[in-house]
Structure formats: C-alpha cells, structure tokens
Amino acid sequence: MINLVINGLNVSVEDGSTVLEAARFLGFSIPTLCHVDGLSPYGACRLCVVEIGEGPRAKLVSSCTYPAEEGLKVRTASARVIRARKMILELLLASCPQSKTIQDLAAAHDVRQQRFKQEYEDCILCGLCVRMCEEQMMAKAIGFRGRGEKRSIGTPFDIKSDVCRLCGACMYICPACQLRCTYNEPEKAICGACANLAPPCVEKDQFDDMMCYMDPCVACEIQKDK
To answer: What is the 3-state secondary structure (H, E, C) of 181-193?
Structure first.
C-alpha cells in the first residue's frame, strides 16, 4: 500500500494506482475529458490537473497519468487548479463550442467567458477515438497524423481503411460527436443552458489552498430541496 495525503487527509491506496484513481476511489471528484475507464491514460486534455507538493515547489500535473507516490501531498481543487481548469475549458470551447459535453463542463466550472479566437475545428485531439479503435475494437484503423498545429486524426495517407468495420465506436466515444449543442451564435461561445449552475455556498474568496470539491455540492443540494 502507498500512503499519501489528498486534500489534507491521510489515505492509503494500492500500488500502481494513479492520483486520479486514488482520488476517485476516496470520493474526490476530478473532471476528465480524454480519460475513460478501460482505455489507457493519455493526459491530452489536462482537465484532470491537480496540485502536488507544497510552497513554491508545488506544481500542476495530470492526475490520470501521475502515479500515486509514498508521502505525496495532493490538492484536487486549489485556487491554482481551478484557474487552470477554467483556462483549459476556454481553450476547448474555442475549438469545439457546440460540444454539449464541453459546454456542460464549462457551466459546472463557472466559466462565463471565452477569450480566445473561435476556431470551430471540432476535433480537440483527445485521442479517445484512436485508443478505442486500437484497444477495444482491435482494429487500429485510425491514428494521429502530423505534428504541432498540423496534427490531426485519420487513416494513413487519407486512404479508406480496409480494417475499419464501421462499428461507430469512434463516434460513440468522441466528446465532439456524442451530443451537439444547438446554441451556435459566433459572438457567444458559451451556452451553459443545460447546466447553468450558480452555487449558493460560502464565498469563494475565503478559499485559496482548497476550493469546494464536493460533487454534488452539499450547499447546492440543500438549496435545491428548499
């Protein structure tokens, strides 16, 4: 067993666990987009970032790929982590504003603006379709091509794959294809109509090292029942 500290609590997890697995096993919610149980961790979207270490040497890491280590100190919802996740969601919205999955994540994290140029590229290069095709469908019909801004997903040399079974698994798992948000005004990238949240809990400026990590938020649930 590995002993570490998550959000100030001393916990023990099995050897070989990632920080994401350890946190979720103990009930700490960490959002993910490119991570799905049953597929290998990839760390592409960075939405699962957590803060490890203390003081000026503390750093942000992707929890889905970072291994749980003896004595590691982890914060899953510090002010620094929340800021990073909001920035990531703004960037994702710039590429794929009509993804309901991304819109709902943005609303849940109180993202109210999108400061980047709207690209409408749709594909966010999360790699879910590539890993699904290779690891679950055993086909390897698609993969990554190119590097940098020219990176894309498709078949080798853009030739129709002779191993593709047209199973649709790539579309099933793609966050851009699953559900499409019909709100598409170019000047307003953020919708949030399906999950427009305004937590009535304590003032956020009282928290710095740790924000609320409850999912669902206890204060929100109490308010909803009134």
So the answer is: CCCCCCCCCCCCC
